[in-house]
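BUG: 3D viewer hangs when loading the predicted structure for this chain

Environment: internal workstation, default settings.
Expected: structure renders.
Actual: progress bar stalls at 90%.

Input used:
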Amino acid sequence: MIEITDLAEKKLLEAIKNYSKPVTGIRALADAKSPFKIDYALAFVAKNEVKENDTVIEFDGFNLYIDSEIEKYFEGVTLNFKETAQGGGFIFENLPKVPKEYKGTLAEKVVKVIDEQINPQIASHGGYVSLVDVKGTDVIIQMGGGCQGCGMANVTLKNGVEVALKEALPEITAVYDVTDHAGGKNPYYKG
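Structure tokens produced before the viewer hung:
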């Protein structure tokens, strides 16, 4: 679950005390633009705005509320406050994942990365990725489910799948998608 630094906690309490209306806490928001790009935000919460399905994290002087439906986006995330010349602001930081050493042939390693890192991310959008083939150091994948025909499939491929594969397996030189996106029956996003 989300962690909050001591400085961020102090600054949240100050913001609540200086807010013009009475509030019971802060809501952490997450908007998944794609499985690999999440926009985070904060909002004040009045007593009448607390939801039944909220996860509540209690702090000294306020509560942090997260809608249980988006709670998964806060795993491994830290809320921090960065001081700047202009005063500073809150930032959400994803903690670096410890690189995992994969063993086996390149194809076996690709399948493990897809199963362990990529598919869990895109499953929330009803999608999945499968390995089709490996040619030398080039990887050929196919997208299915909500990814097939999705208007954001190219973004997911370039900014998500390809980046995750190359970070985990630096020997990969290129990732190609052979999906028939025109045949998608239930795309997550129609562009």
